[in-house]
Amino acid sequence: MIIIYTFVFCFLLAIFWILYKFYWKIKSVILYEGILISITITFFFFQSSIIHALADLMSCTTIDNEKYIANYLLEPCTKNPLYGNWQYYMIIPGFCFYCIFLSLVPFVYMCKHRSQLFEANYIRKIGFLLYGYSSAKFFW
Fold first, then answer.
1. How far apart are CA 116 and CA 114, in angstroms?
2. What is the C-alpha to C-alpha distance for residues 109 and 105, in angstroms, rounded to an integer?
3. DSSP string, the chain
4. Contact, 74 vs 19, CB < 8 A?
5. Strands 60-63 and 66-69: what pairing?
6. d(CA 19, CA 24)
7. pLDDT tier at 135, thresholds 50, 70, 90
8. Cα(70)–Cα(44) distance, rounded to whole angstroms?
9. How many domains does the chain divide into?
10. Residue 31 falls within a domain, yes or no?
11. Does residue 139 lie in a domain region?
12. Mean pLDDT within 97-106
């Protein structure tokens, strides 16, 4: 459920920035930056909860000699053949997206713009990711 909340919240943030653009008549570049920064902060804020929810969906708990999904105790783990498909088609790609992709995107972006990272334009956009790091070790 937390995954759905994350995407709904990101959608609402995008709507907010679009309405903000039309009300204040700001440039499209600033709109793009605002949406990107808001969504980045949102995904990093919810990341631990999402990973915890995905891990709960993959684990089973035993109650009265029956195994049930830890996050949804009405669904048995062993008797439902669709549970294996659910793991392979939804949960494992979710882990890959949240653990690998969302960590890799800022790293690739910072490597690509390595020489410009500490200029005012980039500090305004991604300074919250770089705060406290030196230019030699920007990649954590």
1. 6
2. 6
3. -HHHHHHHHHHHHHHHHHHHHHHHT--HHHHHHHHHHHHHHHHHHHHHHHHHHHHHHH-EEEETTEEEETTEEEEESSS-THHHHHIIIIIHHHHIIIIIIHHHHHHHHHHHTGGGTTSHHHHHHHHHHHTT--STTTT-
4. no
5. antiparallel
6. 9
7. low
8. 24
9. 1
10. yes
11. no
12. 79
Distance CA 69, CA 79 (A): 11
Spatial contact of 106 and 117, defined as CB atoms under 8 Å apart: no
Q: Is 138 a domain residue? A: no
How many residues does this entry show for the chain?
140
Cα–chain-centroid distance for residue 129? 15
pLDDT in tens, 40-58: 788 778 888 888 877 777 7
Query: What is the identity of the amino acid at 42?
Result: T
